[in-house]
Amino acid sequence: MKHPLFRRALFAAPAAAAVLFASACGGTTIDDAQDSETTGPTGTADPNAEIPEGLNIDFLPKQLNNPYSDIVNAGGAVAVEELAGNFTERGGTEPTADSQVEYINAASQAGSDVIVIAANDPDAVCPALNEARDNGSAIVGYDSNANCTDIFVNQSSDELIGTALVEMISEQIGGEGTFAVLSATPNATNQNAWIAAMEEVMAENEEYADLEMVDVVYGNDDDLDSFQKMQGLMQSYPDLDGVVSPTTVGVAAAARYVSDSEYKGEVAVTGLGTPNQMSQYIHDGTVEEFALWNPSDLGYLAGYAGAALKAGQITGAEGETFQAGELGEYTVGADGEIVLGEPTRFNADNVDDFDF
């Protein structure tokens, strides 16, 4: 069946520049909240604090016009609408830290209450984020964290994702052989954490002793660049058994290359992708299985987490809880991490049951 949050998000997809939502309902306002006792990231959590209407919540993806980010932020827009806030999507078309700094500053100057960011670099964006926090913004990382966020909404745990990726490539190449990784950008914190988790899983489990990761290359979350990097991998390693791409842009580009090459049926392609972009490669036999969480849910959870943070329901301390709309109750883990859940695997049996 089609996921309910994604169906809702179809009616609230964010525009490339800004999409604003307002509510005519009565209730707590930002001015009311500012008159109450100090709560939030620098104060004491009050789980019963009301989320004020009219919060300005800015989503900064790694880049605009990325199919995955579009789905994530559509979920965020739904959450902000439910919270009677104002949603804005900001960003450039290149996945660089310099580009993000510009839009962080713009959000701060516009009076953003919450900045939700998928960082292109864990450190380079921090001076701008810290300044935005000083100006009153609560800072939420999602998808790819920075080293200066108040909380981080993780699509899954690094260990769960790393384990799923290793299990899939191992199953698809018969438990032994060589594979390479086609990643996004060299500084993407989520990609690097997942690759490190893969290496740890392989090192700690004897069943993977005959697997060898021979290379990691970077397609910069660009379709053409990723396609060319996949081509380069096969030229460098003509006997390669498989490729793992933990990025939706990369895995689709890798599958497209293999589907029209002599390697189809010989080289396994797996990783993290969306059912809509990968179903054709499942059905034509290029890809056996891949995984992902529901991207719309990730944005939806990040929107609610940011509002809870700004309202003071949570501060980012371990053990705090908050309600995330239709997703239910979530608990803040160690280091301010909030985990959406386990990744879902997609194959010929279920890929057509999802629409995102």
What are the defining features of this structure?
alpha/beta; Rossmann fold; 2 domains; 37% helix; disordered N terminus
Show the helix and strand layout:
Layout: H1 4-9, H2 30-34, E1 56-60, H3 67-82, E2 86-89, H4 97-109, E3 114-117, H5 126-134, E4 138-142, E5 151-154, H6 158-172, E6 177-183, H7 189-204, E7 211-218, H8 223-236, E8 242-245, H9 248-259, E9 268-271, H10 275-283, E10 290-292, H11 295-311, E11 321-323, E12 329-331, E13 337-339, E14 344-346
Parallel strand pairs: 1-2, 1-3, 3-4, 4-5, 5-13, 6-7, 6-8, 8-9
Antiparallel strand pairs: 10-14, 11-12
Helix pairs in contact: 3-11, 4-5, 6-7, 8-9
Molecular structure report:
With 356 residues, the chain is α/β, with parallel strands linked by helices. The protein has two domains: 4-155 and 294-340, Rossmann fold (3-Layer(aba) Sandwich); 158-292, Response regulator (Rossmann fold, 3-Layer(aba) Sandwich), CATH 3.40.50. It is 37% helix and 17% strand. The chain is built from eleven helices and 14 strands. The chain has helices at 4-9, 30-34, 67-82, 97-109, 126-134, 158-172, 189-204, 223-236, 248-259, 275-283, 295-311, and strands spanning 56-60, 86-89, 114-117, 138-142, 151-154, 177-183, 211-218, 242-245, 268-271, 290-292, 321-323, 329-331, 337-339, 344-346. The strands form four sheets. It has a six-stranded parallel sheet, sandwiched between helices. Helix 9 (248-259) links the parallel strand 8 and strand 9. The chain starts with a helix and ends in a 10-residue tail after the last strand. The model is unreliable at 1-40 (pLDDT under 50).
